[in-house]
Q: What sequence folds into this?
């Protein structure tokens, strides 16, 4: 008879368990011993303080209603004197689970090539180059061989911008000094354009991820809400005083562990405390996206580290046999094999395993060129607004000229009338 906290399938006559790392390991040991496994119903409660007795899995094992107990059992049960433990078969770590960083929007790929100071520096250098061209065109008479396009600031800026984009200028510079400045600017533009195109192509294919929360300090400054199951609530009191004062007022108690994990995956501004194996297991089906990527991200900082074991009554005759079988399973890599097989099975059931197609290269689609089309649309909108403003300005200017002309004629007529009256 076996006691467990995890129930997967139950009918009127018996309790059955078909999945779980400890379940698979237990069936392996039963097969080696040529024994059958019978599960008892999962007990309720942990300890009865009124008569100082233990309930739950520990109570069933101590009372000899079960020969072995499991289900997230670890050395934390060492406070119970009437229990023995097998050698550990897995590490049980308690960690913070936060939302995995989302993919950056593709429309921001153009601006991400350089940081803002670099963009401002490039614009400033272009203005300086245009100013140098303008000065060389106007400084002395011998430099006046250049065309009129380089005698105005707008013409010099237009030529500098054209060289930066890698297109031809309307008129080539004629004077020697102006040509030297222009060639230097073309070389500079070629270097910047090469770097820009290389990084731009990379960002169009893979836009990257937003900033990921990496530690507890980032979590505190993120403004997230916290949800913790009652079995993990005590870990908050082991945090630093500053961290505890920030987290406790914003912490909710979840009824189920999966409920907290689902909020982290769906809401994006939620954090919880989980066992690392639970988070890894949920990332294979419940908290995974359409591409099979888990939405839960586990911080490297560990709140607690323990070892997962089977519990037996004190002095059990099965202790030595189970220790030998658990050791064999660990050394043979069966525990790791069972765990990976469970994760793969869940991914297949969730249809989150995708086979790679082709040789890894991607064909550019409208989605990849999203930022280019957005920039084109922005340019069209800006051009339309400028064109509309020019029409309004032209109408206003024509109307004002007409009004000035009428006023001029009126003043002239008045002067003529005054002269006639004076002559009369």
A:
């Amino acid at each position: 008879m076996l006691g467990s906290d995890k129930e997967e399938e139950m009918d009127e006559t018996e309790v059955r368990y078909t999945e779980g790392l400890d379940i698979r390991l237990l069936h392996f040991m039963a097969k080696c011993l040529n024994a059958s496994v019978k599960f008892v119903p999962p007990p309720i409660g942990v300890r009865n303080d009124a008569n100082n007795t233990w309930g739950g899995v520990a109570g069933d094992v101590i009372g000899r209603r079960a020969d072995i107990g499991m289900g997230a059992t670890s050395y934390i049960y060492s406070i119970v004197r009437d229990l023995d433990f097998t050698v550990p078969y897995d590490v049980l770590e308690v960690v913070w689970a936060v939302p995995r960083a989302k993919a950056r929007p593709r429309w921001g790929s153009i601006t991400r090539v350089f940081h803002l100071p670099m963009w401002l520096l490039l614009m400033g250098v272009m203005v300086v180059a245009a100013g140098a061209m303008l000065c060389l065109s106007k400084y002395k008479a011998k430099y006046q061989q250049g065309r009129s396009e380089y005698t105005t600031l707008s013409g010099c800026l237009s030529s500098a911008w054209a060289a930066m984009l890698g297109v031809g200028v309307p008129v080539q510079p004629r004077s020697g000094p102006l040509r030297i400045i222009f060639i230097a600017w073309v070389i500079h533009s070629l270097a910047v354009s090469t770097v820009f195109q290389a990084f731009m192509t990379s960002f169009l294919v893979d836009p990257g991820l937003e900033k990921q929360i990496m530690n507890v300090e980032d979590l505190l400054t993120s403004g997230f809400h916290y949800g913790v199951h009652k079995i993990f609530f005590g870990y908050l009191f082991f945090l630093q005083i500053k961290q505890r004062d920030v987290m406790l007022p914003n912490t909710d108690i979840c009824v189920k562990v999966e409920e907290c994990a689902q909020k982290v995956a769906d809401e994006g501004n939620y954090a919880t405390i989980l066992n690392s194996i639970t988070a890894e297991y949920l990332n294979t089906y419940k908290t995974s996206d359409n591409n099979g990527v888990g939405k839960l991200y586990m911080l490297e900082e560990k709140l607690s580290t323990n070892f997962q074991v089977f519990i037996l009554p004190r002095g059990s005759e099965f202790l030595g046999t189970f220790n030998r079988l658990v050791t064999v399973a660990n050394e043979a890599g069966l525990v790791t094999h069972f765990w990976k097989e469970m994760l793969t099975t869940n991914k297949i059931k969730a249809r989150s395993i995708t086979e790679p197609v082709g040789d890894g290269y991607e064909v550019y689609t409208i989605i990849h060129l999203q930022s280019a089309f957005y920039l084109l649309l922005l340019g069209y909108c800006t051009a339309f607004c400028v064109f509309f403003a020019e029409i309004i300005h032209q109408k206003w200017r024509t109307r004002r000229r007409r009004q000035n002309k009428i006023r001029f004629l009126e003043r002239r007529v008045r002067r003529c009338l005054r002269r006639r009256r004076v002559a009369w």
In short: Residues 1-11, 47-52 have pLDDT under 50 and may be disordered. The longest strand covers residues 296-308.
